[in-house]
């Protein structure tokens, strides 16, 4: 097991233990990370688990499918490295990753 750090918009950090195979969203929800609403439960149907990944980690998070791109297109705080955390599967390569949370979720 490894760790990932979620940083809220206000700078508050939440270091969570990750389990290989779960989604990044589930890791956040299981650890009560504020700002990950996960309204659709991980179905890539809402955009309320939006995270901003550091460019250094983007390749390790895997590819972005069309449905995720579509949901991110509706997100007001979208950046070049925005992802939906429900679409990122935790792997050993993500140990140590830091993601930032937008001020508002959709």
What do you see in this structure?
The protein has 106 residues and is α+β, with helices and mostly antiparallel strands. The protein has a single domain (2-100), classed as Ubiquitin-like (UB roll) (Roll). The chain has helices spanning 24-30, 66-73; strands at 2-7, 13-18, 50-53, 82-84, 98-100. The longest helix is centred in the middle third of the chain and has 8 residues, at 66-73. It starts with a strand and ends in a 6-residue tail after the last strand. The model has no long low-confidence stretch (mean pLDDT 95).
List keywords for this structure.
single chain, 106 residues, alpha+beta, Ubiquitin-like (UB roll), 5-stranded mixed beta sheet, 2 helices, 5 strands, 21% strand
Question: What CATH architecture label applies?
Answer: Roll
Biggest sheet: strand arrangement: 2-1-5-3-4
Q: How would you spell out the order of helices and strands?
A: EEHEHEE
The best one-word shape is globular
Number of strands: 5
Number of domain modules: 1
Mean of residue pLDDT? 95
Q: How much of the residues is beta strand, in percent?
A: 15-25%
CATH superfamily: Beta-grasp domain
CATH topology term: Ubiquitin-like (UB roll)
The CATH top-level class label: Alpha Beta
Indicate the multimeric state.
single chain
What value does the Rg take, in angstroms? 12 Å
**Helicity, in percent?**
10-25%
Treating each run of at least 4 consecutive H or I residues as one helix, how many helices? 2
Q: Helix/strand/pairing class, anyone?
A: alpha+beta
Outline the biggest β-sheet.
5 strands, mixed
**Distance between the ends:** 31 Å
Unreliable residue runs: none
């Amino acid at each position: 097991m490894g760790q990932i750090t979620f940083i809220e918009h206000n700078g508050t950090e939440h270091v969570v233990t990750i389990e290989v195979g779960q989604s990044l969203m589930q890791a956040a929800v299981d650890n009560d990370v504020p700002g990950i609403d996960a309204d659709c439960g991980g179905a890539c149907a809402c955009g309320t688990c939006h995270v901003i990944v550091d460019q250094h980690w983007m390749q390790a998070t895997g590819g972005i499918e069309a449905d995720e791109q579509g949901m991110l297109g509706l997100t007001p705080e979208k950046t070049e490295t925005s992802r939906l955390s429900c679409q990122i599967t935790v792997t050993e390569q993500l140990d140590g990753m830091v993601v930032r949370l937008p001020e508002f979720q959709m």
